[in-house]
Design brief:
alpha+beta; Thiol Ester Dehydrase, Chain A; six-stranded antiparallel beta sheet; 6 strands; elongated; lyase; EC 4.2.1.104
């Protein structure tokens, strides 16, 4: 897809990822990687006694899964040399993701700016939880794509 083709779709949903299970093994691995071993994430027996009724994923784990979801749902720009996260203008964790739940990402293109050798895109992203009335998170996510030299 070209940046012109994508720019014509500003305000539209561009993609929806597949459902992805969030397993306790993923949660435990994330806890090990980040050093965040709060019981609500890693101790099923103690977490079962809370209002969540079991362990929940770290909000930042849910956030980190956006890259894989975007890879499924968002078409790559032609002549891409490199794509990077540029940051977030807005991020809210709305609902907890319980261990064993399935999530998916919904991507709406909010803005596209062309530079000389890059394209900056802002996405309104919602991470939905299967069979849940409210999403896990809402964010405005900014990515920058660096383009190859073309003739």
């Amino acid at each position: 897809m070209t940046s012109d083709e994508l720019a014509a779709r500003i305000g539209e949903e561009i993609g929806l990822s597949d459902w992805m299970p969030v397993t306790q093994a993923m949660i435990d691995s994330f806890a090990d990687a980040t050093g965040d071993h709060q019981f609500i994430h890693v101790d099923p027996q103690q977490a079962a006694l809370t209002e969540f009724g079991g362990t929940i994923a770290h909000g930042f784990l849910t956030l980190s899964l956006l890259a894989g979801m975007a890879g499924q749902a968002v078409p790559a720009l032609r002549h891409t040399r490199l794509a990077v996260n540029y940051g977030f203008d807005r991020l809210r964790f709305i609902s907890p993701v319980r261990s064993g739940a399935r999530i998916r990402g919904r991507f709406v293109l909010a803005e596209l700016r062309r530079g000389q050798a890059q394209v900056t895109m802002a996405w309104n992203v919602t991470v939905e939880i299967d069979h849940a009335p409210r999403p896990a998170l809402n964010a405005r996510w900014i990515n920058r794509t660096y383009l190859e030299e073309t003739d």
